Amino acid sequence: MSPIIVELIVLALGMALLLVESFAERLNRNTIATIGIVGLAAVFLLLQFGDFSASGIAGYIQDKPALFFKKFSLVTTIVILVMSIDYSDTVRKFVPGITPQAGIGEFYSLPILTCAGMMWMASAADFILIFVSLELVTISFYTLVAFTRRNAASLEAGAKYLILAALSTGFFVYGVTWIYGVTQNTNLAAISKVLPSIPAGNQTGLLFGVMLVLVGLGFKIAAAPFQFWVPDVYQGAPTPVTAFLSVGSKAAGFIVLLRVVEAFQTLPALEDKISLAIVLLAAATLVYGNLAALPQTNFKRLLAYSSIGHAGYLLMAVASFGVFDAGLAVVVYLAAYLLMTLLSFLILIIVAKNSEGDDIIHFNGLSKRSPFLAFSLLVAMASLTGVPLTAGFLGKFLVFKVALESRQFLLIVLAIITVGCGFYYYLKVVRAMYWQTSTGAPTNISVGILSTVTIAALVILIFLFGVFPQFGAGLLS
Amino acid sequence: MNLLVHLTYLGPLVAGILILFGLPARRTAITGTVVALIAGLILFLGYDHVAGGYQFVSSLPLVPAWDLKFYVGVDGLNATLLLLTSIVALAAAWMSPRNEENLHRYMACVMGIAAGAAGAFASLDLFFFYAFHELALIPTFLMIGIWGTGNRQAAAWKITIYLSIGSIILLVGLIALYLMVPDKQRTFDIVKLQELAAHRVFTGAGANTVFLLLLIGFGTLVSLFPFHTWAPQAYASAPVPVAMLHAGVLKKFGLYGLLRLALPLLPEAARHWSWLILALLVGNILFVGLATISQKQLDLTLGYSSVMHMGYIFLGLASANLIGVNGAALLMLAHGLSIAALFAISGELRKQTGTLDYRDLGGLAKSMPLLCFLFGLATFASIGLPGFANFASELLVFFGAFKTATPGAAFNGYQIATVCALWGLIISAVYMLRAYRNIFFGERLNRWAGVKDVSLALGWPVLLLVASLVFFGFAPQTVLQRIEPGMALFWK
Lengths: 477, 492
What we know:
The complex is a heterodimer of chains A (about 475) and B (about 500). In chain A, about 75% of the residues lie in helices and about 0% in strands. With about 475 residues, chain A is mostly helical. Chain A has a domain at about 280-475. The mean pLDDT of chain A is about 90. Chain B is about 70% helix and about 5% strand. Chain B has helices spanning about 5-20, 25-45, 75-95, 105-120, 125-135, 135-145, 150-180, 190-200, 205-220, 230-235, 240-250, 250-265, 265-270, 275-295, 300-320, 320-355, 370-385, 390-405, 415-440, 455-475, 475-490; strands spanning about 55-65, 70-75. In chain B, strands 1-2 form a two-stranded antiparallel ribbon. In chain B, a hairpin with a 4-residue loop joins strand 1 and strand 2. Chain B is globular. Classes of the chains: A mainly alpha (about 475), B mainly alpha (about 500). The interface of A and B includes residues 385, 419, 430, 435 and 469 of A.
């Protein structure tokens, strides 16, 4: 079967749910989310057990990383929809409508369209295709970030995201035109083939183009110094959207980055300069993300800075590209990042709903209010810091391994320090949950069945990846 | 599959998980540690020192591409340490409070620490060797922060940040060690790595740097001077079981790592850095020793003293001959038992009197004869009086270190360090006997007239620890003959 069928199914699912939203007024909107979850789960199974290896379309490759990133997008979107159901009360409060449920359906179906874009991006090996799928993702996000439109913070986030994302897209396209100008190609495989024959005089132009593309991608993956939008947008956007941005958008950026870096391997003179640029990006991102996370008191903002920090570790692995396991390190790190970040956001939504706020002090005494949530968040924080026997450790372990193998000593020294910082700011949350007592009257928090199952599944997966490293090592085989 | 070794860490681990799921905390914890102790005893007694090598092994391949497996087994060295772990874990579980708020969490954390220590000693695979040790980090943070005394929050942060940075440096060192092996032979298997060392695989250009990383990484975990400042405060603030397990057992992980990996695999690098090790260990013994004398509270005295005693063990490790390293290994056992006993006693004392400040205490021997007797024994053990395992091991360490010869030097660095270290014996006698006198002798203040002695039911964990010390003091060869086959492969 042709592999694009999968993306088309997801796209059709998203469109159909949008139509349902418009025409079925009386339908309980949570049904839309449930249909979405079931539909995406079905697509996941189809991808897992069906045979979609043959491609035959130019600029569309279906290799193991592509398959991994497609499943990654599906899982992320499913968890995002679970979160959105928990978050729907807040959305309702900030979205004006004739009926109480108006607009909620869109909040559920737009992530599915984003998912289709991310899946397409995983296979895109042509700058045109990359651009189109990137825009499908980004434009869905414009809407989603500003979705709760009576909330000033959300609107502010939307405006900031729109302007800066558009600017970064401009950089990206401009870079692509330079690359096209030198190589006469937009297809990555074709570019990689003609690179060795590029005369030395034209290489500067090529380098300029690649650097502009890096700027565009640096924005997507939230690498310093292109990270300025992150804290405000993450804090202002509806929380499920923040989670989606920090996991889905980042992963999509990394698959494109890997494809671009891989394509330019054939010209060593250029490749050296690109890796130097990535090393510098990684160093800046590591330092900025982790140091800026130290003083944060708002949990959502803390997660925003931590997502910048994690982009640094991921870039460390990308900078080691060329070492055998570097691709695997990125993939394992992203898989771990997905599990622990989504788990944190899911718990954040439930706690924030019951505590009237999402500062770290609102987590005070959580161990008494809900031992289950507290323990799950403890697991998420331990994994984010990289404590062994959790998924996060396997990711860090592989990143350090490939970085040592390719002798990135500067990055290793920085990473040692930043991991230490991580222990401080993640354990601040643990401290709030276990050491402190809650400020107000401690009320018990009840968790819905769907959320309980999702949280338990994520916790189990985090341990599974940590205790049995073969799951991580087998992600690309 | 040989299940015996698995019981040493699964006992506490399963007990901890079951406690979280609602089983009675104390009883489950004691059952779990008793299972571990029985397994530890069978391993120790059953280890065949004539055959030597690694026994009771069982392995489960996980990632063949990296030669990573779940691999456990014992030789004399880690059989001894597993025995130490299970004895101290049982005593710690017994010394835990009976009616603490959230007792099940308390006990689950204690079990987590015990399981982490046991798993680290049992593992013969680098990945899990490292992973198990870090397992103890989060429970320690929680326990000191929630149930600690004094300035507990600062202490909890300090120990966590120090140990995490130490561990990450260690991780980099271990990965670098792994990468020193040529591409096709790379393995996480510690036994294979030791075999590769015989083929001079680890002699490349980076060997000295890798050794330094391992020394700093492991050294931070052992509170090697000047990376020791986390330890005294953390041990003083920690709840009794944590102080017992951490100072007694978990801290030995770093020494075990040096003895198992860094020194046998990188002997030339070890020689290259020997001046640094000697300088730092003298810092441990003299600088920290003098700091110990100036302490005004028993918990801080014990915290500093446990840092100071690491210096002797480092001296044994640095000596690079069979007598010295054997002594170091025996001293790990002896120090673990004696410091655990001392922390257990100080915990009881705090429970009865509410203070450990020397200025508030005095003459307690009249009201607490049994505790006084036990403290006396533990004090004598800690000072290294003959009859206790500490004496036998310190003697071996000093003989070993003094024997190490540097060609061409009449009086070499090892001998200077040994002479400095000998002063440590006097220093530790000063502060321990002073503590003994200040607390138990002299004039009894009226407020202590009604203080109750510990019952024998509570005192027996301490008795168990002290009895083990006496046993190994009179029969150190039970340990030494088991350790020797493994050591003789690398040292003469």
